[in-house]
Amino acid sequence: TQLLEQSPQFLSIQEGENLTVYCNSSSVFSSLQWYRQEPGEGPVLLVTVVTGGEVKKLKRLTFQFGDARKDSSLHITAAQPGDTGLYLCAGTVASYGKLTFGQGTILTVHP
Amino acid sequence: EAGVAQSPRYKIIEKRQSVAFWCNPISGHATLYWYQQILGQGPKLLIQFQNNGVVDDSQLPKDRFSAERLKGVDSTLKIQPAKLEDSAVYLCASSTRTGEGLAGGPPKNIQYFGAGTRLSVL
Hints:
Number of strands of chain A: 11
Order of helices and strands of chain B: EEEEEEEEEEE
Strand content of chain B: over 45%
Radius of gyration of chain B: 14 Å
Number of strands of chain B: 11
Oligomer: heterodimer
Radius of gyration of chain A: 13 Å
Helix content of chain B: under 10%
Largest sheet of chain A: 6 strands, mixed
Helix content of chain A: under 10%
């Protein structure tokens, strides 16, 4: 069983601060995805990383895949209240693309 | 393009009762997934269909949970009888097809999620 551990589980910050969320595993993943989920909604895909060491940027969000493809991080610069939500990482190992999710990080950005 | 539709949005039942959830995937999506998301946790895959065949149901508690996708489009997930620990959000997702990209490239199975059904078992 491939496990993904996210940290921290909860993050409460003020608007304008920076933050980093980590996603770690002892397993190697062929790809890793980050999702954002708002209350009452399903997860929405933010990014997919597939190459060890890959860095992708999405406006104020920076995603990195570890060199060994066992870990990933999400960095948000100058957080805004609209960034509030549950952030989930999910890894793919099996040939049919089964996703294994981490337990999520609940981010609250206060105005 | 319409998204993944799920109903009902909320359901409250007593333990030992039965309940069914319905999912209509995005048109043309061959692969359909049911996930269980317990409060404070990430989604856990219960079952994956490719058209009307089951690809993976290894984490489906088959003594009480069942799912079908008879015509390869809509799907229903049933719990009978429900237990207190079944309280969760049940998410349906669909994708165009299963499988990794060619030569280890990006996965081609981007999953689109519905809003989920929140089940409370009292």
